Amino acid sequence: MRYYHKPDESQETALTAGGVIHIINHIQMQKYISRKKFLASIPLIASLPVILNMMKKEKFYKLSFSTLGCPDWSFDKIIDFAKANNYEGIEVRGIMREMDLTKVAEF
Questions:
Q1: The pTM is what?
Q2: Backbone angles phi, psi at 61, to 5 degrees
Q3: Cα distance between residue 43 and residue 87, in whole Å
């Protein structure tokens, strides 16, 4: 016996990142999926890269790094590295092996 969950109008989801992920998770949670539903889901899954590229980037997590990985770098070198590698954030944990940021001249 197969059971399918049909969402009512209040549960319908718009095509946002959460909505697409909800639809994919819903498909994955079903133990059985009919051929008709599988074929109907192919266009959505195939268009997923286009949908994600069209969405606003500020809804996603920003790429950042911690200065713990570069203990000998100066603050200027850290900033230049972040700009050159398209990082959008820096977790400043120490500069030039100084972990007490109140003692760092840049701060």
A1: 0.45
A2: -65, 145
A3: 33
